[in-house]
Amino acid sequence: MTPEIPEKSPIRLDVDFYRDPHAVYRAIKQRGNKPTEVVLETGMAYLPPNLRAWVVTSYEDVEFVLRDPRFRKSIDKAMPLFAASAQGGGQAQDRSSLLYDNMANNDPPIHTDLRKPLNSSFTARAVAPKRQAMRELAESVLDAVAGHESFDLVQDFAFPYSIGVICDTLGVPREDRETFHQWVQTITSDAEPEVLRSDAQRMVGYLRGLVAQRRETGTDDILTQLAVSLGESQAVAQAYALLAAGYETSANLIVTGLLVLESEPDLKARVWADRSLVPTAVEEMLRHQSPFNLSLYRYATEAVEVGGVLIPAGSIVFLAFAAANRDDARFEDPDRFTVDTPRREHLAFGGGIHNCIGKHLARLEAEVAFDVLVRRCPELSVRTPPQHMEWKASPTFRGLRSLVVAPGPLRSGPGTAGAGEAA
């Protein structure tokens, strides 16, 4: 259902927006798909609740903002703008945590310095050899629920698998994953400020310990690269950015990807019957489901006209990647999900200098996950009714807190393909 939106009032983005952002995007499209004023009711990390901002939805306009230097990122310069843009006297969250001072929240030259030590580790060639280890990890995660009547795709597979992949990639001990997972979930949600500060401080302390350890006894991993290339605070902030974004979006893609396949039974049957369709299906999931709903912030350094609308200087701007990826001016029949033709020109990984550094890792991770799910769960179906699905209260990360599926995976052994099978 498309909501009624007053012509001159900002759109309030609330829990209904997290559940179905495309209802709002359809309404914006009906008004000409122009940049639109909004109020984000929910705070998150450094964002205050009731933040007044602009949302850019068309593919052409999103690409324009991604590449226009008048739209900037600097967490320290943005903080007073957040406070000034919060309605009802809302206060910007405490930015004392250094976690937020990472490459995602800064432009060059800071961004360049922070990203440089990582570039070679995330190329397509660099991540390709990880396929076998990913497959073995996915198999072992499913082994834990093999033979069960049902299991939670979010908590029993998507999160453990995605966390394991990023732990192995960065060099973070897997045995710590439950601890930092809870901290990340707090920091990226609408937690109370004191809870947010407490868990952010715990995360900083944990990562500082790992960085110090790598400086003393380095190993061949990304955490060591950060520890020896950057100052302590920079290394901690970068490690957090990679850790949080590196598993949250991948886990959400696995879950929403299955949901969209479940809504298209004929396509799901084709993918389950022919695993060679998995890469194309994953590419379409990235476009159609967009695990990054809204981008992280930008602010206008001067008044800028975007799509015929003047965005005032000092305005906070968010890019609606999910809306741009379903823009009918760019994609034919954009709401239709297909596994026939890959539509790789999507913006699921952003663009410009802030394009997702982990895009090749994310693609491979999702391909392996679905390849293993198809083989180990031949009769898999969603059992949680739509009205009982709880979506995370985040304007950026769109994901479910739980999704019961059934039946459980087949047990490994005779009759199932080995873990070393090529994908």
Structural class: alpha+beta
Arithmetic mean of pLDDT = 90
Strand content: 5-15%
Whole-number radius of gyration? 21 Å
**Architecture in CATH?**
Orthogonal Bundle
- CATH homologous superfamily name? Cytochrome P450
Order of helices and strands: EHHEEHEHHHHEHHHHHHHEEEEHHEE
In short:
The protein is 46% helix and 9% strand. With 423 residues, the protein is α+β, with helices and mostly antiparallel strands. Helix 8 packs antiparallel against helix 12.
Account of the 3D structure:
With 423 residues, this protein is α+β, with helices and mostly antiparallel strands. It has a single domain, classed as Cytochrome p450. 46% of the residues lie in helices and 9% in strands. The protein has 16 helices and eleven strands. It has helices spanning 15-19, 21-30, 59-67, 75-85, 110-115, 124-127, 131-143, 153-170, 177-187, 193-216, 222-229, 232-262, 265-273, 278-289, 321-324, 359-376, and strands at residues 11-13, 36-40, 51-56, 71-72, 151-152, 298-300, 304-306, 309-311, 316-319, 381-382, 404-406. Keywords: Heme, Iron, Metal-binding, Monooxygenase, Oxidoreductase. Pfam families: p450. This is Cytochrome P450.
